[in-house]
Design brief:
The complex is a heterodimer.
Chain A (H helix, E strand, L loop, with lengths): L5 H23 L31 H37 L1 H15 L3 H12 L3 H27 L3 H8 L4 H38 L10 H9 L7 H28 L6
Helix pairs in contact in A: 1-2, 1-9, 2-3, 2-5, 2-7, 2-9, 3-5, 4-5, 5-7, 6-7, 7-8, 7-9, 8-9
Chain B lengths: L6 H8 L11 H6 L18 E6 L14 H10 L4 E3 L6 E3 L2 E6 L5 E6 L13 H13 L12 E7 L2 E6 L6 H5 L9 H14 L7 E7 L3 E6 L13 E6 L3 H10 L4 E2 L4 H8 L4 E7 L2 E7 L4 H4 L1 H10 L2 H7 L29 H9 L7 E8 L3 H13 L5 E8 L1 H9 L5 E7 L6 H8 L6 H4 L5 H12 L3 H18 L2 E5 L2 E7 L2 E2 L15 E2 L1
Parallel strand pairs in B: 1-10, 1-11, 14-15, 14-16
Antiparallel strand pairs in B: 2-3, 4-5, 5-7, 6-7, 8-9, 9-10, 11-18, 12-18, 13-16, 13-17, 19-20
Helix pairs in contact in B: 1-14, 10-12, 15-17, 17-18
C-alpha cells in the first residue's frame, strides 16, 4: 500500500469518505430530506441551512447528503451487474469463438448503433420511469463495452505462450480461463469500470433531471438540480451544491481509475 | 384551447403549456384591447415594425379544425378570421368577419352579414360560400371535435355576403359556438385545390396577418396581409412567433430586448421582472383551471367521501403561495373563473379534521396507496404534487409520483390507464357549455375528462342548459349543476391561474384575452 501511487491513495481515501458519508451521514442529520416547510422556502445558505433551502423549504444540505446514498447506489447498480455480464460474455465469446461469439458481437453492434443516452432514454420510456427500469436500460446497452474490452484482451492473451502451454499440458478450459486468462484480462475492465461509475452517476442524474430516473420527492442529485433549475436566478444554491457533489464524486472515481491503471497496467504508465 | 370530444386530440395537445400565463393586469385593464383608437392618448399608433413574441412551443398545424393545442390555436387566430369572436371582456361576442348579425324572435334563425371588403391574403374576396364550407368542416368533418357545440342545423347563402343558419332545435349557446376557433374561415377553392395536408402547412386566411415562413420547431413569421378588410390595420409589418421552451432563456431574452413579448412568465420570476426597467409584466385572468383527477373506474375513487377528503386535506392557499407566489385563486367551482361560473360558492376549506372524519367513514378508513402521474418536465406540477403528497399523508394516503412524457400521459388518461393524474382545461369560447361537456357531463365523449364521473342529475342539467333560451333560468341551471359537481368532488381542484406576459415598453396595445389568445392587429411599436 505504501507503494501505491498518490492518485490511487487519494482516490481510495475519497471513496471511503463518500461511503462513510452515505452510510453514516444521514444518521447524524436531524432533518428529513422530503419534509417540506413552506414557511422557509428559498432561504440562502446559513448556519441552520448550510446549503440553503429549496423552493419547498427542504434543506439542500440534508438532501445532498441523503442523495449520496442514492447516487452511490446508482453507480453501483449500474456498473456491477453490467461488469459481470459483459465480462462473462466477452470471455466466453473471445475464448471459444464460434457462433456465440458471432451472435454476441452482432448484438453488441446493434446496442451501440444508438447513442448511449438516447438508447437508455428510449428503453426507459418504454419500460416506464424509475430507478429499477433505469438499471435495466443501462444493463441492456452498457454490457457491450465490457464484452468488447474483455474480448479484445482475450484474443491477444489466448495466443500467448503460457496459455498455449497450459493447453498442451491438457488443463481444462475452466482452469485455464480462471487461473491464467482471467487475471490477465480483467484489469482493463476494472479500470474502465471505475470510470464508468462516473458515467453511471451522470446518467442517473441526467435521467433524474429529465424525470425518467429517480422520482420526486427522492433526494437524488440530478433531481435536486432539476428542482432548482427554475429558480437558478433567484436561488442558485439549490442546483449548485448537488452539482458540486457530482463533480466531487466524479473526481474521486477518476483518481481511483487512474491509480488503478498505474498499478495494474504499469506498461501504460507515464 | 382545447376541448375534446375526440378522445385523444383534445386533451392531448392542449396541454402543452402548462405553466403558463400571460396577460394583462393593471396595465391591461386600462389599455384594453382596442386601445389605439382612443384619441385622448397622446401617442397615435405608428405603422411598421416587427413584433417578436416568444412562446413555449411551436404550432403543430395551421389546419383549422383538427389541432387542439393552444400554440396552434392562438397562432391560427392571427391569420384566420372567425365569423364573430369572443369579446375582450369574456362574456359576449364581437364582430370579426361578420360586421353584424340578426337573430329571429324564436332564436332559431341567425343571419350573419359579412364585411363586403373582406378578402383572403391572396386577394380573393371572402364569400358566404367560403363561410358555409368552413362551417361544414367545423361541424361535420370526422376529425372535428367541435361538432358537439352545434345543434342540428342547415345553412343557406342567399347572397355573397350573407349566411343564414337555421337551427332545428333551441340552442342557447349558438353565438358562442360560432365563435369557436375550429370554425375559422378558409378559402374553399384554395383549400380544395391543395388539400388538408398542404393547407396545414401553407394556410391562407382573411385575418390581419399571413404566414410567410415557418421554420418548424423554431419560428413562424407572418407579414401584414395587404388585403385585410381594414386598410389602417394591422400596424405591424411583421410578427415573429419564436419558440423558446426554456423559461429562464425566454425571460432573459425579453429582458435583453431580443424579443418584445415573452409569454408564460414563470410565477417565481414575476415579482423580480416587475422591477426590471423597460419591461411591463401583464397579469391577466384567463379561463383556466388546474386540478388532479382520479380514475373512477377504480372502486376506491367511486367513494365520494374519499374524493371530498382529498379536497379538505389540501391547503390550496399554501400551494398558491409557495408555488404560484400568490398568483392564483382558490376555485369555487369546477369551471375556470369565467362567464356563468359559480364564483359565489365557498371553496373547499383546508380542514384536516373534517378530512380525517370523512376518511374514517369511507370504504378505506386506513388509507391506501395511489400512484399519481404528472407530466415530465412540468416544474409547477412537480412541486404541487410533492406538496399534495405530504398533505394527504395524515389521511393514510400514500401517494407516489410518476413523471410521464406528455403525449404518453395524455394517451394513458384517454385509455383510463391511470389512478390519479394532473389535468387542466381552458375555454375556447365564452359560454361554459364547452367545458361542461368536457369535464362535467359524464355521458359525453370524454367521460368527464376520463374520470368516468357520471352523475345523471348533472348530465340532465347539462342537456337542459343547452336548450334553455331564458337567460336567468339557464344561469340557474348551470348554478345548480356546478353546486352538484362541486359537492361530488370528482376532481381535486387546485387553482385558477392568470396569464402572465412580459412585454417590452415600446409595445402598445398587447393584451391576452380570456380565451388565452391575443389580437395583434391593434398592436403597434414606438
Amino acid at each position: 500500500m505504501r507503494n501505491w501511487p498518490r492518485n490511487l491513495k487519494l482516490g481510495v481515501g475519497l471513496l471511503i469518505a463518500w461511503i462513510l458519508l452515505a452510510v453514516f451521514g444521514p444518521m447524524l442529520l436531524t432533518g428529513d430530506p422530503t419534509t417540506m416547510d413552506l414557511m422557509h422556502s428559498l432561504h440562502p445558505p446559513s448556519l441552520a441551512f448550510p446549503f440553503g433551502t429549496d423552493n419547498l423549504g427542504r434543506g439542500v444540505f440534508t438532501r445532498v447528503v441523503y442523495g449520496t446514498r442514492l447516487d452511490l447506489q446508482i453507480g453501483l447498480f449500474c456498473v456491477v451487474p453490467v461488469f459481470i455480464i459483459g465480462t462473462t460474455i466477452g470471455i466466453i465469446g473471445g475464448y471459444f469463438g464460434g457462433f456465440f461469439d458471432g451472435l454476441s458481437m452482432r448484438l453488441a453492434d446493434v446496442a451501440v448503433a444508438f447513442p448511449f443516452l438516447v438508447a437508455v432514454i428510449a428503453i426507459v420510456a418504454v419500460l416506464g420511469p424509475g430507478l429499477t427500469n433505469m438499471y435495466i436500460a443501462v444493463a441492456v446497452v452498457n454490457w457491450v463495452s465490457y464484452a468488447r474490452i474483455t474480448r479484445s484482451e482475450i484474443l491477444v492473451v489466448k495466443q500467448m505462450d503460457y496459455v498455449q502451454a497450459a493447453n498442451i499440458l491438457g488443463f481444462g478450459n475452466t482452469r485455464i480461463l480462471a487461473r491464467h486468462v482471467l487475471p490477465n484480462v480483467i484489469t482493463q475492465s476494472l479500470i474502465y469500470a471505475s470510470s464508468d461509475v462516473i458515467l453511471a452517476v451522470f446518467t442517473g442524474s441526467s435521467l433524474g433531471f429529465l424525470g425518467l430516473g429517480a422520482q420526486p420527492p427522492a433526494a437524488e442529485w440530478g433531481l435536486i438540480i432539476a428542482d432548482g433549475y427554475s429558480f437558478v436566478s433567484q436561488a442558485p444554491w439549490i442546483s449548485a451544491f448537488p452539482g458540486l457533489a457530482i463533480v466531487a464524486l466524479a473526481v474521486s472515481f477518476s483518481l481511483l481509475g487512474d491509480g488503478l491503471a498505474d498499478v495494474l497496467r504499469p506498461e501504460l504508465g507515464r | 384551447m382545447a376541448l375534446p370530444t375526440d378522445p385523444l386530440s383534445a386533451f392531448l395537445f392542449s396541454r402543452r403549456r402548462l405553466l403558463a400565463t400571460t396577460g394583462l393586469g393593471m396595465a391591461a385593464a386600462t389599455v384594453g384591447v382596442g386601445l389605439p383608437r382612443s384619441g385622448a392618448y397622446a401617442d397615435t399608433p405608428k405603422k411598421g415594425g416587427t413584433l417578436t413574441m416568444a412562446r413555449t412551443a411551436d404550432v403543430v398545424s395551421f389546419e383549422p379544425v383538427v389541432p387542439t393545442d393552444n400554440m396552434s390555436i392562438w397562432a391560427k387566430l392571427l391569420i384566420f378570421q372567425l365569423l364573430i369572436r369572443t369579446s375582450p371582456g369574456g362574456d359576449n361576442v364581437v364582430p370579426d368577419l361578420a360586421s353584424s348579425w340578426d337573430v329571429s324572435d324564436d332564436k332559431r334563425t341567425y343571419t350573419f352579414h359579412l364585411r363586403e371588403n373582406a378578402a383572403f391574403s391572396d386577394g380573393t374576396p371572402v364569400t358566404s360560400e367560403d363561410v358555409e364550407f368552413s362551417f361544414q368542416r367545423a361541424i361535420y368533418d370526422k376529425d372535428s371535435w367541435a361538432a358537439s357545440l352545434f345543434p342540428k342545423l342547415s345553412m343557406e347563402t342567399p347572397d355573397k355576403h350573407t349566411i343564414v343558419f337555421k337551427l332545428q332545435q333551441d340552442w342557447a349557446p349558438f353565438l358562442a359556438a360560432v365563435s369557436v376557433h375550429g370554425a375559422c374561415i378558409v378559402p374553399k377553392a384554395y383549400f380544395n385545390k391543395v388539400g388538408v395536408k398542404t393547407f396545414g402547412d401553407k394556410p391562407i386566411g382573411s385575418g390581419p396577418f399571413m404566414l410567410t415562413e415557418w421554420k418548424k420547431g423554431d419560428s413562424c413569421t407572418m407579414q401584414r396581409s395587404p388585403h385585410f378588410w381594414d386598410p389602417n390595420r394591422p400596424y405591424l409589418d411583421t410578427v415573429v412567433l419564436s419558440v423558446i421552451a426554456d423559461d429562464n432563456v425566454r425571460m432573459l431574452k425579453v429582458q435583453s430586448g431580443e424579443i418584445d413579448v415573452g409569454t408564460q412568465v414563470p410565477f417565481n420570476q414575476i415579482d423580480k421582472l416587475k422591477h426590471v426597467s423597460g419591461l411591463d409584466v401583464q397579469v391577466a385572468t384567463y379561463d383556466r383551471i388546474d386540478w388532479f383527477q382520479w380514475n373512477e373506474k377504480l372502486p376506491v375513487f367511486q367513494d365520494v367521501k374519499i374524493r371530498q377528503a382529498f379536497n379538505y386535506a389540501v391547503d390550496r392557499e399554501a400551494i398558491i403561495k409557495a408555488v404560484l407566489f400568490g398568483y392564483g385563486e382558490v376555485p369555487t367551482t369546477f369551471l375556470p373563473k369565467m362567464f356563468l361560473a359559480d364564483t359565489e360558492n365557498k371553496p373547499y376549506p383546508y380542514d384536516l379534521a373534517k378530512a380525517k372524519q370523512l376518511m374514517a367513514a369511507s370504504t378505506m378508513p386506513n388509507g391506501f396507496p395511489v400512484k399519481c402521474k404528472i407530466y415530465a418536465g412540468d416544474t409547477i406540477f412537480n412541486q404541487v404534487a410533492q406538496i399534495v403528497q405530504q398533505m394527504v399523508l395524515p389521511l393514510g394516503i400514500k401517494m407516489s409520483i410518476e413523471q410521464v412524457e406528455q403525449d404518453t400521459l395524455n394517451a394513458q388518461q384517454a385509455s383510463a390507464d391511470y389512478e390519479m393524474s394532473q389535468g387542466y382545461m381552458t375555454s375556447d369560447i365564452f359560454d361554459p357549455c364547452e367545458l361542461v361537456a368536457f369535464a362535467g357531463a359524464g355521458d359525453e365523449g370524454t367521460f368527464a375528462v376520463w374520470t368516468y364521473y357520471n352523475n345523471a342529475k348533472v348530465n340532465t342539467l347539462a342537456k337542459q342548459a343547452l336548450g334553455e333560451l331564458d337567460e336567468s333560468k339557464r344561469k340557474q341551471i348551470y348554478l345548480d349543476m356546478q353546486r352538484q359537481i362541486f359537492e361530488d368532488a370528482p376532481f381535486l381542484w387546485l387553482y385558477w391561474t392568470p396569464a402572465v406576459t412580459a412585454v417590452r415598453d415600446g409595445v402598445h396595445g398587447f393584451a391576452v384575452l380570456p380565451t388565452g389568445n391575443y389580437w395583434l392587429e391593434d398592436v403597434w411599436k414606438s
